[in-house]
Fold:
Amino acid sequence: MFERLVRSWSLIKGSAAVVRDNKSLLLFPVVSGIATIVIVVSFLLPLLGVEDFDVSSFEDETLVYVWFALLYFALYFVSIFFNTALVSVALLRLSGSPATLGDGFARAAGRLPAILGYALLAASVGILLRVIEGRVGWIGRITAGIIGVTWTVATFLAVPCLAARDIGPLEALSESATLLKRTWGENIAGNVGISFVFSLGYFAIIFGTIALMVAAPAGQPALLASIFIAGVAVFLATVVLHSTLQGVYAAAVYCYATLGEAAVPGLSAEALSGAFRTRNR
Structure:
């Protein structure tokens, strides 16, 4: 366990070096977050004018399912589109080529049909997991959790595949699973390590914000508001950094899996090699 954490920390430092030298990459998650908020609001606003909405009737229940399906699809599309743009720039810069935000958006736009197809596929899986969770009780939750983890592992390199090659969603999913099987096998340490480290960071931010608010002198609402706003700002900034590092990490692993250690000049080859373990055959 300790060795995995050490390797994960090395990987995070290497990824952070790439982000440090290319700070514009942080804008992709920011714009993606703004677009997500706009979509959620645009889906919720029409419901404010709906009166006597009765979900007990077949027609209204059908509309609810359609509404959720469209919302799922829109959210997945936004996430995949901006991740593709981020990973596209990361791939170019890892290879030593200059790239701008515009280059990332241009490449994502060029992959639009594949991104739409993959978003539809991912949204369908997401909806299926929610249905399983809601209809089969605790067994459904366990089953959905297992399927969800399997799906996450199998699709880890799908976005880099979409960004790097002109392929369809099913081919990207197949290639992602093949690359992961070739390089990681069953024991993934790096991804878990990154999530673990950032989870500690999120906890520290939340705990620190609450502690400061509790310790603040009474009768100073402006101070409490300032502490709360600062805590939220730090939390969101950490989320942006986490998302960016995850995208750079995915791009680096894709380069490593397809071209080898020498193809990843921005990251430590040793850290990357330790971030995953191949299956003993």
